[in-house]
Amino acid sequence: MRDLKISITVAGLSRIYGKGLAGVIELARIADGVGIDQIALPDHLAIGPRTDRYPYGPFPLPIEEPWLEPLVTLGAMAAVTKRIRLATGILIAPLRNPALLAKSAATLDVLSEGRLDLGVGVGWQEEEYEASAVPFRERWHRLDDTLRACRTLWRDAPASIASATVTFDGIYSMPQPVQSGGVPLWFGIAATDRGAQRMAEFGAGWMPMEAGPESLREGIRRIHLALSSAGRDPATFGVRAHLPVVRKEGRSDLAATLAGLPALADAGATVASIALGAFAGSVDEVRPFLESVGRGVRS
Fold it and tell me: Which domains can be identified in the chain, with CATH numbers?
């Protein structure tokens, strides 16, 4: 069971930290010390008023919620940690300049000594793209172009690529990542046939929004078929899935929630994602929550 890694997703910061958002750095230090395997940060460059368009039900946070830029924040966390992996979940990659994203991720990987997992996707809100001067209708094409550019810059020196949205020739982007093959790319996208093909080309892992056992198994089946067709070993591919929160008497029950870890592993997950905000509502509750998770997964 301990082969199932534990990732803590850090969101909903205003309720926990108020204006003292620098407290997330101490959170990372605590998580590192108690044996949590990974800390993951979501991403929004901006939020428009149409949160009713959120495709996964009611948008869970207020429109004024602060969203720390993930790579900057993970860089600060890297400085106070030794072993925990640092992840985005997800970073909206098409909103970033490809050369800048490649440089930022490589720098973080070097400074963390190879602990970065770059979870990527395309997001869902058109206003966020408009604010970034990126056409929303081109998001999937730009995702592919951006990731191909990153992988090229992480691998080659000099590096060259030519695509509809990214072109460079004979450039050097140093330093390159510490991790062999570049920074691992995890995908927060649906496992459609095209999505599975995309993951087979680029991906180290999948981060589904829907973590029901049947949905998880079907998505993994499609991805494994695509991996095999691409000549890749499915056993090397990871799956980070949400651990369903169990509520008792109107409150999230951590012990009952952790009891669901074997079922998640049985469905094919390799990493269990646990939402900080479901169990900690204040700064004082952060350390006890992390320590309880650490004890629970070691027992």
Answer: 5-133+179-298 (3.20.20.30)
